[in-house]
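User: Can you predict the 3D structure for this chain?
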Amino acid sequence: MVKRMLIAVVVLFAAALPLTLLLAAVDREGAPLADLDARGTADINGFVLDHRWLIRPMQATSYIFHAWVFRGIVLALVAWLLVRGARRLAAWAVVTITAGGLLGLLTKILVDRPRPDLPTPIAHFPGGSFPSGHAMTAVVGSATTVLILLALIHGIWRWLAWTIAALISFASGVCRVALGVHYISDVVAGWLLGAAVVAATTIAFEAWRRSEGRTPVHPAQEGVEPEAAPQISPLGDAAEAPPRT
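Assistant: Here is the predicted structure, written as structure tokens:
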């Protein structure tokens, strides 16, 4: 199962790489979107500088939306899954969050894009700019968490969970641009790669479930392993799985 997921991540990354490199090309001199990307980044950063009461909240987001915050949340869920005996689900979560981190680092090395050179950046961070690790990990971490918890919730709560995950991911990316440490294209690439990683491991996990003769599910609606609900519920093994929609 883990091998299948890793192969899926590599294949999807290979498919997403041309689009990612195309986004990276916007910082090349003469690129069609280079000026728009640079001006948009400077405008967002400038808006925060013009409204200085936003500076401290923006600086705080560096810690609130830090990649290790999302990794910590996922790893805490993994620990809970292992305690409850949901080893397959735990393995999926570990592969997903690990693949996201490694692919983000690999892309940074391949692209090697400098951070924005703004007159008055609000924050300074080392390392490459493309893609945004904060934005990418926000997508991977929040989506992984939702896909685990969907087995325990149903109805409007599922839509609410996805809405919260989307808002968190969006806010994380916008704040990186506002701080002046990433271009808009860095953030968009982070969102795309993060979504690609989650999609790859989820598709691979569902393919494995079907090969084992398990009932097919719609992961985005029911979670990656809805049959694990009695195991992972805080109410214990006696808890019933939510009705399928």
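The chain has one domain: 2-23+49-232. The radius of gyration is 19 Å.
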